[in-house]
Specification:
Structural class: mainly alpha
Number of strands: 2
Order of helices and strands: EEHH
Radius of gyration: 15 Å
Strand order of the largest sheet: 1-2
Number of helices: 2
Low-confidence stretches: 9-14
Distance between the termini: 28 Å
């Protein structure tokens, strides 16, 4: 069991996303080697991370972004 941002508990992590336990390897494109810069892939990833932090923490977007960037 895990706790959510509101203090409640979730029955299993698969309830909040896909079950990815079968994945053996992950490939991350951190320097635009796999995707061209004009695809804005990393920008999209950053936006989705921000949305997740906002949703789970209840922080405003700007504060969540500041927290992301540390």
């Amino acid at each position: 069991m895990t706790a959510d941002a509101s203090g409640g508990t979730l029955a299993a992590s698969t309830e909040i996303g896909a079950d990815l336990r079968h994945v053996r390897s992950w490939v991350f494109d951190l320097d635009n080697t796999l995707y061209p810069p004009e695809s804005q892939f990393l920008t999209q990833v950053e936006q989705r991370i921000n949305q997740y932090v906002v949703r789970t923490s209840g922080l405003p977007s700007a504060e969540a972004l500041s927290m992301q960037k540390g």
